[in-house]
Amino acid sequence: MGVDAFVYCRCWQDGRTPPAPVGPVGFDEEGHLSLLVSGHEYTEADAAFDGWIASACPHELMEQAGEHLANWTGYRLFQQALGAAGWSHFPTLRAELPSANGGRMPAEAAARVLHELDYFEQRAVIDDEVVLVDEATEAVALTYVAAYQGVLMLGPGYRAGVDPEGFFILDPDSDPPATLFRSTRFRQRVLPGGQVQFSDEEKSVRIAMSPVGGTGTPPERLCLRTRHQSPAAFGYIVEPLRRLCRAAMTTGNPVMWC
Predict the structure, then answer these.
(1) For residue 81, is it within any domain?
(2) CA 134 to centroid of chain Cα atoms
(3) Of the candidates 81, 183, 69, which has an alpha carbon nearest to the alpha carbon of residue 127?
(4) What is the value of pTM for the model shown?
(5) CA-to-CA distance for 168 and 151, rounded, in angstroms?
(6) Do 200 and 89 touch, CB atoms closer than 8 A?
(7) Number of structural domains, the chain?
(8) pLDDT at 140
C-alpha cells in the first residue's frame, strides 16, 4: 500500500476514441472518467464501460502516465525532507501533495511543482537521517519517521520504533504510554513462544512481539546511527512526480492521486 497517481490522456476528450457503448460518460465530481449513471451495484453497463476504458485508445486505461510514488513510509520521509529544507521553498508541493489516498492536483500547478523539485534536488539542505542498523552489516532495520512519532511496529500490547534518542518499545495500554525499553545500542534474541528479549548494559526485557529487522534472520545486535542524507536519496519519488507533471502539462488534465 502507498501513494499512486495517474494523468488521463486526451484521446476521449479530443474525439479519438470510439463512442462508449453505454452512457452518459464524463468526468465525475472527483475528476474520474466515469459512467455517470452508475449505481451502487456493479452492472453489465459498468462492465461494458470498463471494457471500453481498457481498449478505446493506445493508452492503458486511458492514462497518459501512471506512477507508483512510494509506500506511506517513503512518502512521509519525502515530506519530512521537504519540511527540513523549509516548506517556504515548496508552497505548491505543500498545498498539493495528498494527506491520504484520493484527490487531484490541477494541471496548472504542474509547472510550479517541477520548479520546486528542481530546487529540492539542486539546492535543498535536509536533515541527516536517523536509522537503526544491524551492527554486523550496517543494514537499515528502521528509519525515523517524524509523522509517525517514530513508531513503525505495532501489535497487541506494544508500539516500537526509533527516534533521535534511540530504539524504543511502548506499552500503549497505559496512560500515558509507558516505556518498556529504550536504547541506542542493544541485543535482541528471539525466544520460543513469540517473545523477543531486548537487552543492553542497563536493562533486559522480554516482550511478545515481532523481532526487529524484517524478514529472514533477525539481526542480533542493533544500534542507532545518524547518517548524512542528500536529496538524491529521494529520486524514487521525485522522478515519478516529474513524469506526472509533464503529462499534466501535455494534456491539461489533473494529476489524480490514488
Answers:
(1) yes
(2) 24
(3) 81
(4) 0.93
(5) 9
(6) no
(7) 2
(8) 95
